[in-house]
Amino acid sequence: KQEVTQIPAALSVPEGENLVLNCSFTDSAIYNLQWFRQDPGKGLTSLLLIQSSQREQTSGRLNASLDKSSGRSTLYIAASQPGDSATYLCAVSPPGTYKYIFGTGTRLKVLA
Amino acid sequence: GAGVSQTPSNKVTEKGKYVELRCDPISGHTALYWYRQSLGQGPEFLIYFQGTGAADDSGLPNDRFFAVRPEGSVSTLKIQRTERGDSAVYLCASSLNPHGTGGPPETQYFGPGTRLLVL
Question: Which of A83, A111, B42, B93 allows an S-S link to A102, with CB 3.0 to 4.6 Å?
Fold first, then answer.
């Protein structure tokens, strides 16, 4: 059974820092991996999607990498800003299905 | 364009009652998903529709939960004889899925959710 873990559960950093959020999954057989952002009381916003054949994706200050063989992904946020404060969730899609299995998220707070 | 919308945004009901939660996906998206998110947890998959049919309902917790998508667009999640443990945020997502081509899933776009509280 696929399980997704995110470490740390919470993180507080000063503005301007570069930071890394970690996601690990127990079964390396995945279709793709997607990183989401969730603001309090809101739905999820897609940040980056990495297909199983890819190793990384970039969007602005965000870079996500995928190492399928070791069951890990990292989300790198450069020059963090207070507006980046949110919960970040990673999710993997098992092959042959279209559903996502989510981690419990990392609550990020960027201090001004 | 408009994103995924869900109604109502909040629903309070009493134990034992029946509730319906509605999802309007992004126009043209053939795939629709329902997830449930409890406090402090990530979303849990409930059911996935491709067009009008439920392609995967393996996440529905029991037979009190049922979902339909009769015209391949709007979907309704129905919960019978609600229990306090059903309290959660119910999230809907949609995507352009190349179903049948064997390709990987596309990005899922989520709605704001319906917050259900069963008293």
Answer: B42
B residues 46..75 contacting A (CB < 8 A): 48, 50, 55-56, 59
Q: What is the pLDDT of residues A6-35, one digit of tens each?
A: 999 999 999 999 999 999 999 999 888 999
Q: Provide the mean pLDDT of chain A.
A: 93
φ/ψ of B113, rounded to 5, equals: 90, 160
B48 with A49: Cβ contact below 8 A: no
Three state DSSP letters for B45-65: EEEEEECCEEEECCCCCCCCE
Nearest to A43 among B31, B41, B111 (CB): B111
Residue-wise pLDDT tens digits, B19-52:
999 999 999 888 999 999 999 899 999 999 998 9
| Partners of residue B42 in chain A, C-beta under 8 Å | 4, 89, 91, 102-105
Q: For residue B18, give the 3-state DSSP assignment.
A: coil
